Amino acid sequence: MDRDIAARLLGVSSAADRDDVLRAWRLWARAAHPDAGGDRGHFEALCIARDVLLATRATTAAARPGRPGPSARPAEPAFVSTAPRMPLRQVLCRPRHPLVLLAAAVGSVLLGGLPRLLSETPLALAVLPGACAAAIWAAIAQRSILRVDADAGHRIALLALLWLPIWLGQLIVSAAMDIETITVLPLTAVPFAAAIACQNSGAGLWRPVHRHR
């Protein structure tokens, strides 16, 4: 794994210092650790990316010359260039069980009619199972479709793209069954907001092309 791929995997700049690398790794590892239900391959890739970035910085620091003499020219400011984010299509892969994902998507959409079966339950509570199902399906599908070198921006963008059609499908089903979901519409987005918050919030969505150090 080279330095650019390692940096994209952790969602940091390729010029990130040791503290930034470790901070990003801890954020990702907390969710990706197998003991927390994460994917072992993803966790191992995160560890490799951390080691690559830390080893590269250690090698660079060891190779730096000593204190310059009086006649030495002062070092000029360095401009660090980071690789641009790869297009989303380049970090997509084929899911292992596409039919299972499709069946789960259809089931999640049909949950838009659940409030009709829970007519004695307040609508604000009756819509939550469907909203949670949409967010959970989007999170699972995202992990199945993205490669491990996708960064935080890819994950957040794909999560939104996967959740949106399920959410709209639930609204269509509820409208067809004369369920006034529109009155509690903001509540249906709460689980999705929680799913977004579980992404790597420390890395941010965007990285600068050039940074002055």
Question: Can you tag this structure with a few keywords?
Answer:
213 residues, mainly alpha, Helix Hairpins, 2 domains, two-stranded antiparallel ribbon, 10 helices, 2 strands, elongated, disordered C terminus
Your description of this structure?
It is a single chain. This protein is mainly α. The protein folds into two domains: 3-64, Helix Hairpins; 88-197. It is 58% helix and 3% strand. The chain is built from ten helices and two strands, in the order αααβαααααααβ. It has helices spanning 3-10, 18-32, 40-63, 98-110, 114-117, 123-126, 128-145, 152-176, 185-188, 190-197; strands spanning 79-81, 210-212. A two-stranded antiparallel ribbon has the order 1-2. Helix 7 (128-145) runs antiparallel to helix 8. The radius of gyration is 22 Å and the shape is elongated. The relative contact order is 0.16.
